[in-house]
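Limitations
The structure tokens in this dataset are predictions for the assembled complex, not deposited experimental models. Users should treat interface geometry with appropriate caution, especially where small molecules or nucleic acid strands are included. An illustrative entry is reproduced here so readers can see what is and is not provided.
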Amino acid sequence: MRPDGKSKKNEVGEANVVMHAATGGESESTLVKIPQPTIERMSAYLQCVRNLRLDGVVTASSSQIAEGTGINAAQFRKDLSYFGEFGTPGLGYDVAELEAHLSRIMGLDARHDVLLVGAGNLGSALLHYSGFPQRGFHIVAAFDSDSEKVGTSINGTRIHHIDELARMNATLNAQVGVVAVTRAGAQEVVDKLVAAGVQAILNFAPVSILVRPGIVVRHVDLTSQMEVLSYYLRAK
Amino acid sequence: MRPDGKSKKNEVGEANVVMHAATGGESESTLVKIPQPTIERMSAYLQCVRNLRLDGVVTASSSQIAEGTGINAAQFRKDLSYFGEFGTPGLGYDVAELEAHLSRIMGLDARHDVLLVGAGNLGSALLHYSGFPQRGFHIVAAFDSDSEKVGTSINGTRIHHIDELARMNATLNAQVGVVAVTRAGAQEVVDKLVAAGVQAILNFAPVSILVRPGIVVRHVDLTSQMEVLSYYLRAK
DNA sequence: GTCTGTGAACGAATTCACAGCT
DNA sequence: AGCTGTGAATTCGTTCACAGAC
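Predicted assembly:
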């Protein structure tokens, strides 16, 4: 109801996810508001803790986590405090236990099925990327509008025509969509994903997309990352 | 904007970028501290303005930019105000002119040469990615430690052994390095890039890396992006 | 003594609101 | 009228510093 900036939407830059569900009339369940930067750091802590466990470390203090992530130790403790108490005063944190807690907090105890749209270079790379399945993100179907690509397979995943998306997800029930198409096609693809029941979208297209409230969007723009580097380079 | 005589240094938080700015006396007018989120948004504005120009739009108001980026209109005007005055009251912004200003501010009026380390799936995708050269980021050499890959070419770029890095950059003088290797090799690669004269690094390895002051690092972790989506999904 | 968990203090970033220009 | 540019006000996030647990 203000004339100035009424563009409210679920865009997400490298640094901010906007969730429509949160700002409206959300009433209960989450009593404490958790800062978005906290959520992003939680993933970094988890990464660090996984690495510590792989290195055979059994117990770690908040300052060790700080060292491994580049994040302030007090910040780590404060972030964790939004979710509970996981450490032992005088001792620190049990690495395996902390990993389990962080995984659960991030919703990683469940398997996530993913639809990929766009089988170009980036899409192809994502189909080859082992990091996703390692963390429980499984690309269960891939789609493209290019009839040259439809019918072929990449790393064992068959490429279907985009028109098959809704029908296929009626049985697959994937909740996450990855958009790896050009800027021109992005919004249309997003609309199809949402219509097919997808609840969260990772957008690699270099354009801001609109979704209805309740759908979570994150935007990853590789070029933008380069541009930010360029900015800091420029001053030299 | 009124430049006060404050020579406050460009300090950057640990969110995504770790930057140790040398902060010598700067010739340009930028003596005011510019928030890091502002820099990230500048890239989003530029993207939007490019899209507007491609769509034939000649003039745009701050609220139109807001619509195209999902960022508040007042925020846009405030962000721009750190760098100067680029609009016309009562009218808005000339799209072409604004694009030129934003490009210059981001240091995109110069060509940037890039070294890529890691010719696996991700490295290969980056070599195929057209977005980089389109914006003036040219991968001038690629490196890997796998002797199977050394000597082959990807999309016209030859893969060299990592030990050639320093020698080759003595003539290439690239300032930007992209790290697309595994977590175990990342820090070593970063050290080699820095030793070879690289000033800025885009890190795709899922680990925090250390650099000496003056070197800019940005970390992109695709899995982390997915994990954040997972978090917001979990609440449903 | 060591280290966690957290209210309080602080600092940073966003949004408001309006003066002033077109 | 419409819109920019910007101090002021507000909101938000980080860091401090210490009580209390081990």
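Some entries come with short summary sentences. For this one: Chain B touches chain A through 81 residues (CB under 8 Å).
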